[in-house]
Amino acid sequence: MTDGPWQGDACSLVDAYRAGERSPREEVEATLVAIESSKLNCFSFIDPDRALAAAEAADVSLPFGGVPVGIKELDMVKGWPATQASLLFKDVIAPYTQDSVARLIERGGAIPVGQTTASEFGGLNVSVTKLNGVTHNPWRHGRTTGGSSAGSSAAVAGGLVTLATAGDGGGSIRIPAGYTGLVGMKGTYGRISRGPKAPHRPGTEVSGCLSRSVRDIARHFDVCAGTALRDPTSLPSHGHWEADLGTSDFAGKKLGLCLNLGGVTLEPGVAEQLRTSAVALAEVTGMELVEISVPLPNLAAQWVMGNLSALVSELGDMWPKRGSELTDQVRFGLLMADSMYNLRVAGVAEELRVQAYNVMAEAFEQVDFVVSATNPGPAFAAESTMSAPDAEKFENLMENPAIAVGLRGVMGGMRVAKGLAPKLPNSTLDFVTSKIPDIVTMGALTIISNVYGNPAVSIPGGLVDGLPVGLQVLAPHHQDGMLLDVALRAESEIGWPRTAPSA
After folding, report:
1. Strands annotated E in 158-279
2. Is the pTM for the entire model greater than 0.85?
3. Domains along the chain?
4. Residue-wise burial string across 66-92, b where 16 or more C-beta atoms lie within 10 A, e elsewhere
């Protein structure tokens, strides 16, 4: 038996299989032992019998043949739990396997070993839930991995698996990648099918993976991208993403530097470190680095509330009578949406969306890529249920029973008031945004690429306080291949650790 799981990338593991240096059975056994002894709490479900049986039948000629992978808890696998990381669905079993996972297993030959933890319904940039507890960052125990693909990032950076599935509806691939020193890419909207159930709302979610290398992402695209009949937003794939790596010509192109994209305040040391990384990226690509302003509207509050309609539909009769089983933040968001969302809020949300489209288009008319921070700072406390700087204050408020009752009363009054004064909800949201901007701009560095639908990648951008920070690069729609090549230049010329030093 091997000493432990493979510490390189997934592609090199397949090479080792094909060279006879390692076997899928050995790798699965080592992976299962490592997961069992890990203190990261990044897997919520393990299926050893299935994994070992698949290892015996593995076809290593396939792109990911015999590679053990983690499957994000929000991704459906027939016969596995379908908890959505929530106590409300803790006993539900998935009746189907979603397209992207099925392709990874059937076309790719990957071996699913279990489910990686996620934030509840994928709604928060944190790594803690009532159902699974706290997932820890392999770079430093007690720090978050972010969300919602919390366990996937911990498992890959922590040396347990070389690849794990992930999804990005507001930054949920890039945010954890940034906190754990991984490369994480959100492709152009529709690049990978969300089927067989692909609701229109929120119209931002993209499936993908968390990995240690750019070529793993390209190979994942080769296997999983492409159209699907049950997802009308899915895009065609040419199928040679990996073969095309390294073929882009960056001569005469410009990198637009806007580290605080969305007007986010960066924590001490982050701007300095990422500016250094951006200069290095410009040097290795040969592009010109220029300062750029991207004056995006703050659309988070109106946009988020509208998207909660999909969750209300999923909860059905369980909301609000079983609301106490939800995390405080999800419950509060639903209460706000119930109380404040109306046609005028929806209308303002659409106005802001179009404004954002135009601002991004104007940016890409000036430069070929936009460079920003992925997160405001390095990983915060793992136990935090919010990713905002003032999170502790709000957590304490939510835990106070009297305040919780008062908030419900206020929300009930708002439901009545919005019928008499339809403009009141927007005025209230604008006031909240102006007074506590950090609360409503969570993920503002990443969310714009979900709203606009363009591809964006987080690459390791160095360390602050001994913890990773991500450098995010945005490209125009359908420039996924060129964006992969930007990341590849950084990987090959600058480099980054495959796993956390403590892994």
Report:
1. 163-168, 183-186, 206-211, 254-257
2. yes
3. 10-248+478-493 (3.90.1300.10), 300-351+391-435 (no CATH)
4. bbbbbbbbbbbbeebbbbbbbbbbeee
